[in-house]
Structures are given as structure tokens and as C-alpha cells.
Amino acid sequence: MEPVVKPWAKAIPKEKKLLEICGLIESYGMTPKSFLDDFLKHKAAKFVVRRRLWGTGTGWKGTQALLRSIKALVCSQDNGPQHWEQFILAQVGVAVHQPQFGARD
User: Fold this and answer.
1) For the segment 13-22, what is each residue's pLDDT rounded down to a tens digit?
2) What are phi and psi of 22, to 5 degrees?
3) Whether residues 2 and 48 fall in one domain
4) N or C: which end of the chain has fewer CB within 10 A?
């Protein structure tokens, strides 16, 4: 299901699009972060199909760009670099216990 982009949509500045989308998200009592978290976790097929390529060869480049953007934002805050490092080290700890990484118990 590829999105249908209206021809006129390309002429709208990105800042205007972002503000309108943020306004809509907020009008539903959500924050951009809560929206993204819910979007990524929802199990309904209509959401699963919209994120189906995130971990594939086709979508991985964009997923990495998103992760780098999150890292840059986190690390620009007070204590952000420490929080990021703790998070990444915790993920490494989880990964080394996975069978595909030669789990060590």
C-alpha cells in the first residue's frame, strides 16, 4: 500500500506540513512521541503494513536515518549522551543473550 501523494502536496513547505500534522496529533490528545510509540506497537494489519519495510533491506537505510536523528536529539540534551550510552549498552547486553549472537548463559 503505497501512499497516494496529491500533486499539490509537493508544493507545501515541509514546515507547514509538520505543523499541521503535529496539530492534528495534539488535537487527539497525543504527543508526537506517544503517536510514534503507539504507531510502532499497534498490532492491527493497517498499521503493520505501513511499517513492513522498516527492518528489511529496502527500508533499513531510512530506519537507520531515523535512529540517528533520535540519537542526535537525545545527545543534544543535558545528560543525553549518558542516557544514550546506557540505552545502547543495555541493548548490547540483550543482544548477546540472543541465540543468533551465540548466547552466553
Assistant:
1) 999 999 999 9
2) -60, -40
3) yes
4) C
Compute the 3-state secondary structure of the chain and give helix, strand, coil in percent, each to the nearest 5: 70, 0, 30
CA distance 33 to 36: 5
How many domains, the chain?
A: 2
Per-residue pLDDT tens for 53-104?
999 999 999 999 999 999 999 999 999 999 999 999 999 988 888 777 665 5
Residues in the chain, total: 105
Pair 9, 43 in one domain: yes
CA–CA separation, 62 and 68 (whole Å)? 10
First vs last C-alpha separation in the chain: 43
Q: Are residues 7 and 26 in the same domain?
A: yes
